[in-house]
Amino acid sequence: MQNVLGQSKPSKYQKIFFWLILSALSTFFAEVISGSFIFPFTTVWGWIAVIPLYGLHLLVIGHFVLRGRPKLWLLFIGGIIFGLYEAYITKVLWIPSWGEPMVSMGGVAVIETMVLVLWWHPILSFILPMLTAEYLLTGSSEIYYELPGKFRKAIAKRPILIPALFFLWAGMLHGGASPSPMHSLASSASVFGFLGLLAYIWKSKIQGSDFSFRSLMPSKKEMWILAIPLALIYIIMGIFIRPEILPGITGHIIIISLYIGAFLLFSRGLKRSRRPRVSRKPGPRYTWKDAFIFAGIFTISSALWSLTGLGVLILIISWFPGIWLGLNMLGWSVKKIL
What is the pLDDT, as a whole number, of residue 308? Predict the structure, then answer.
């Protein structure tokens, strides 16, 4: 059988390996960059909890998005659903694990909820890993061509500068959360070593770049199989992680209302995105040399900023343009869907 690009369909094992790459990328962008967990690929907790948490969310929600065209507004709303796990799993949307909330309303941490649900998880946990994996590791570029034209033109004009600035900023956050330069360097080496190995095996040994991103995502049957361990994560981690933080009835009502609103928008968005699947030619590609440059920028930035102790300040300063971006994307997405 042929996929949308006219290529052979991947085997079950090829798809599972690609799912591992997606899970690793989501973990890197969400947990490693923020400094929340800088050694996810070399610790038991990373493999039994963190990587499955991110990977299963991305794969299950991504399955629905890829039923039609992966419109940016649909990806964003899917990312909101992703980010809401910070309520019933980590309880961070009620009481952050790093301290008291900046502003609390009805038992919900307002600023932290906007940061995580409208910016961090939609962009870094969901959209960016999928975009990166498709753009660099497959033969399609559907998500890339759903990005705003101005952004694509900027990337085309400055293919090195924009990612370099991103990794410079990411290194600042990562380094600021690292206990020492040695921790920073060790984390960077383990993360980029692991991601580089996965990419090498995928591109050189499996030759997975011949497949389209759509063909590598879970089928309907596979999605329901993956939904079972995801549900178990919610049950087990929901019970055992910070159960004393659960709020009163008002806090639950607010979070449940956010879930209902996000699911309603997502459902309507799915109907609007179900148009004929469009094959896209790959956009401009980066080389291994470029990857080493970006990894080097991140590593050096992280090591230097670990000496300053200002990473938390940089992260908090980043919250507010992030909230502004998230609110604007929410308004734009609602307008497109409704």
Answer: 85
